[in-house]
Amino acid sequence: MFTRKRYAAFSLLIAAVMALSFVTVPGGVKAQGFQPMSYSAPDCSYGGEIYKIEALDELTVKFTLCRPDPAFPSKVAFSAFSINSAEYLEATGGGGDLIDKPIGTGPYVLEEWKRGDSLVLKRYDNYWGEPAKTERIVFRWNSEGAARLTELQAGTVDGIDNPSPDDYEKIRNDPNLVLYDRPGTNIFYIGFNNRYPPLNDVRVRQALAMAIDRQRIVDNFYPAGTIVATQFMPPTIFGYTPEVTWYDFDPEAARALLAEAGYPDGFTIDLYYRDVFRSYLPEPGRVAEDIQAQLKENLNVTVNITVMESGAFIDAADRGELPVHLLGWNADYPDATNFLDYHFGVGASDQFGDKFPEITEPLQKAAAIADPAERLVYYRQANQAIKDLVPMIPVAHGASATAFKATVEGAHASPLGNEYFAVMQIPGQDTLVWMQNAEPVGLYLADETDGESLRAGEQIFESLLSFEVGGTNVEPGLAERYEVSDDLKEWTFYLRPGVTFHDGSTLDANDVVMSYVVQWDAAHPLHVGRDGSFTYFAALFDGFLNPPASE
After folding, report:
1. Lowest-confidence range among 8-12, 209-213, 306-310?
2. Contact, 217 vs 290, CB < 8 A?
């Protein structure tokens, strides 16, 4: 879908050359003498954004793009593009221990992961930056908001994610607890896969859009501060265009349109969701049942509901295996490319079925323009096309929060959901226990998309750039600075000297090159991961360089 087979031989040749640049030895020790790596597409006709990635010297990495990308700093700051050790990537074969026993450069190192119970992180004493304030962070999980609050009140945990909306006032009135509001930089949507009849008829999708009372869902199941979505983009993210609004709730018009499409008596459809409390969907089961009731009442559409395990659900949605699904998105960085390109662009997953050029073409144009006003012209076109073609129904931009013991210093809620535990501490306590909605699926962040995996991994890994703690501004990360050409196509990053991975090896430019290349080139022998989707890379950089090696 994203690649060109004629480049496969070229890719394998380059991979062989790259393999000569390293000698994999026990303990992560690098080969004697630095041999800079370079990886390039033959040209830009393969359709992706990246043309070349090269190590100029031991601490300098240059990216050459096929088109300008004003959002590139935000993308490389995102944790899906965190930097792994090149030697460890090779030693693990691109999977296996990479998923369960990660080696990063961050303030915490994985000490123990008891699947189904807890994940324990220990302070990394050789961290290049300010040391973590608490020696150990313990991640636990529970899908029930009330159960998480009970543990916080009992003192068995020190902080929780996404308390139930009904408990906000209880927390605010408890002198022992503090509620930290998180702005609604997210979207909850009802996704349709247009490869499944009758969803392949746009009139059916439009009728469904008119038949669901989104305000009712927000009023009944969301906390104060939540707003009904008028488009996929939250108003706080660049790319939102207020001129484009969603369909009004109009059951009569919906029934007429469904009859025109040939379904005057309704139809039966399968809806899937995961029972995980999310900031964009705090009551998934109750919301699913309400949607089921609304569609039955308003269109005589019978909805069969299936609950899936979280990881299996995400994988199935990405592969396009679910006709209707309830899903959402929290901002990874504050730009339209994170919302629109990831979900509807040429490199997006198959969750909505076949792509629409009416959407993909303006998105590609907008992503390559530096001037914000010019970009918005194309985002208006894309947002209007999303409304007209209805790949999904945007329902809500959900307000959410974290809650901590009042004794936790440095506690916060991040608008990006990437709370940073290295700045938190309870004086006199060497361990801080955090309870979130679900267990991480895997810790090789290049091949994960769920927030629980990303948040845990963000304590272990770091990217070239970073986001400020509790905010959205981009700051230096593993790169202490960068330079960009006037045309926004050449980006040069200068790494911090002396940064070490948790196995003691030293970060260099080849680690950066390899970390990106094994995602970029789908034919690379290390393009393995947990399930091999690498969804973020394909969506944010317009696809892969080559087809998978198995094709």
Report:
1. 8-12
2. yes
Contact 111, 123 (CB under 8 A): no
Tell me the CATH number of domain 106-183+399-457, given options 3.30.70.360, 3.30.530.20, 3.30.565.40, 3.40.190.10: 3.40.190.10
Q: Do domains 106-183+399-457 and 186-397 have the same CATH topology?
A: no
Q: What is the pLDDT of residues 96-124, one digit of tens each?
A: 999 999 999 999 999 999 999 999 999 99
Structure tokens at 420: 């940073």
Cβ-based neighbour number of residue 472 at 10 Å: 20
Please give the full DSSP string across 279-331, using - where no structure is assigned: TTBS-HHHHHHHHHHHHHHHH--EEEEEEE-HHHHHHHHHTT--SEEEEEEE-
Cα separation, 494 vs 498, in Å, equals 13
Beta bridge partners of 2: none
Residue 31 has pLDDT above 80, yes or no: no
Q: Is the pLDDT of residue 190 over 70?
A: yes
480-497 pLDDT, tens digit per residue, is 999 999 999 999 999 999
Strands 392-397 and 50-57: unpaired
The CA distance from 24 to 255, in Å, is 64
Strand partners, 419: none
CA distances from 350 to 160, 221, 318, 344 (A): 33, 29, 5, 9
First to last CA, the chain: 12
Q: How many CA atoms lie within 13 A of 486 on its CB side?
A: 0
C-alpha 308/C-alpha 207 separation (Å) is: 27
pTM confidence score: 0.84
Give the CATH H-level superfamily of domain 186-397: Dipeptide-binding Protein; Domain 3 (3.10.105.10)
For the chain, the structural domain boundaries read 5-99+461-540, 106-183+399-457, 186-397
The 3 state secondary structure assigned to 513-527 is: HHHHHHHHCCCCCCC
Decide if 494 contacts 59 (C-beta within 8 A).
Answer: yes
Give the model's pLDDT for residue 32. 60
Three-state secondary-structure class, residue 427: coil
**510, containing H or E segment:** helix 509-520
